[in-house]
Amino acid sequence: MSAEYGTANISKIITTTFSALFKHKSQIPYQYGKHSVPARPLQPHLRFPASARAAMAQLQPWAAAEPRGCTLHSGRPLELFCGDCGCCVCALCPALGPHRGHDARLLLQAARDKQELLTVYLRNLEVRKEQQAGNRRSVEQAAAELKAHASTSKQQLLDRVTQLQLLLQEEERLARSVIDEKTQQALEAHGQQVQSCQEELAALESFSRRIREIQQCRDPIQFLEKCTEIEKEMQDSRRQPEQWHPIPLSFEHILNYYSYLMKFLQSILRKPLEVRLKEDVFTSLNATSKRDPGTMLKTVTPVDRMLFLKHARSPTWEYDSLHPRLKLSDDRLVVSCSWRRILYPCGPQRFDKLWQVLSRDAFLSGSHYWEVDLLHAGAGWWIGAAYPSIGRKGDSESCRLGWNRASWCIKKFDLEYWAFHKGERIPLLVEDDPDRIGVFLDYEAGILSFYNVTDGMTHLHTFRCKFTEPVYPALRLWEGSIGIWKLT
Ligand SMILES: [Zn+2]
Ligand SMILES: [Zn+2]
């Protein structure tokens, strides 16, 4: 009820209502010349609703009017109201005076009509106030939810960064243990080398001692015998001594590796965060970041279909999920009941008990609008949307469209209409049976709305939900056929 009460519309309502009221001359007791218009009944849409009439009945009756005379015709009281000029005149004015031929009617009647009009206008203002208060509540709720979401997001961010820090600490631990292990191996080798040097030194020392002892021998025969004894050993030890050069063990390559890793990270981080989040190389579910903060989805009732056609889609049905008693048209837009079971390959996605099917196309961000043709759907049908996690086997609640957290639908059976989600049902007042229903999804806003296309886009129902999985158009059939209206 919002758009039709815009300022322009209100003035239009007032103008049309007034002109209709003032041209309705059957209530005027006088005939004012040849210009008067023949009486005609009030048009149905201008009749006051019963509630307005009840409100008017409570109005105070008019006080006795203060008698005032006409400025043009002295002595004549103001008895009429000229609708063309918007002023009170005497009975002579429309007959003889400047209001000749004007739309004039009894003063009290005119006042009463205006009073009625103001009552209707006040009612409309009440509706607008309610609407606006509703909008304020929605925005306030969104603001509160946003604050909570921001704070949990920051906590989660802290958790992820902490995880990243832990990963880096673990990486450091691993690199340190590589250094420790290599160092240990080298030190063990060096220890053995030092040991063998020491043994060699000790051997040389003892040999030197032996030679010095032989030198001190006074007996030349003994001396020469001892010299011959050690001659071979002396020749052996005269060979060129080895010089050892320990090759230093380097960990430069480990440090280099982390330098490069850091440079790589820096090359990513050098770009401003805002730009990186927009490019979002890690996920494709990034439509949210492309929206400006505080964006509002505005709808009016009755909505303009053109508004939705900007997001028009023509989803086709998924063969693999189709129940064996359902068949698809060649263009995959129409699902119909088959008189016999069809032999489809068994698969995990196929509904095996319920006559249901999901679309091939899923929506996981942005706005989408599709229309479902119900002209040949028969007495019962379910249309809506589902997560891919809806159950496929059996006919338990987890599989039934609208009976679980994973699906939403509008159901018709006989003359009754219901909105279904999580097994909770809300009765819908549908005045004219829809031949076609428009379904609008805004993933980020969490809105799934249904409109009666054949009845000038009358709003049927809106589900509000925080979507967490891809959303697939879905349906369930009772008889006949249901098709997607080709919009694209
Ligand atoms: Zn007058
Ligand atoms: Zn006039």
From TrEMBL:
GO terms for molecular function: transcription coactivator activity; zinc ion binding. GO terms for cellular component: cytoplasm. Pfam families: PRY, SPRY, TRIM_CC, zf-B_box. PROSITE patterns: B302_SPRY, ZF_BBOX. Keywords: Coiled coil, Metal-binding, Zinc, Zinc-finger. Residues 122-174 form a coiled coil. Residues 295-488 form the B30.2/SPRY domain. It comes from the Eukaryota. InterPro entries: B30.2/SPRY (IPR001870), B30.2/SPRY_sf (IPR043136), Butyrophylin_SPRY (IPR003879), ConA-like_dom_sf (IPR013320), E3_ubiq-ligase_TRIM/RNF (IPR051051), PRY (IPR006574), SPRY_dom (IPR003877), SPRY_PRY_TRIM14 (IPR044116). Residues 65-107 form the B box-type domain. SMART domains: BBOX, PRY, SPRY. GO terms for biological process: inflammatory response; innate immune response; negative regulation of viral transcription; protein K48-linked deubiquitination. This is Tripartite motif containing 14. It comes from Coturnix japonica. The gene is TRIM14.
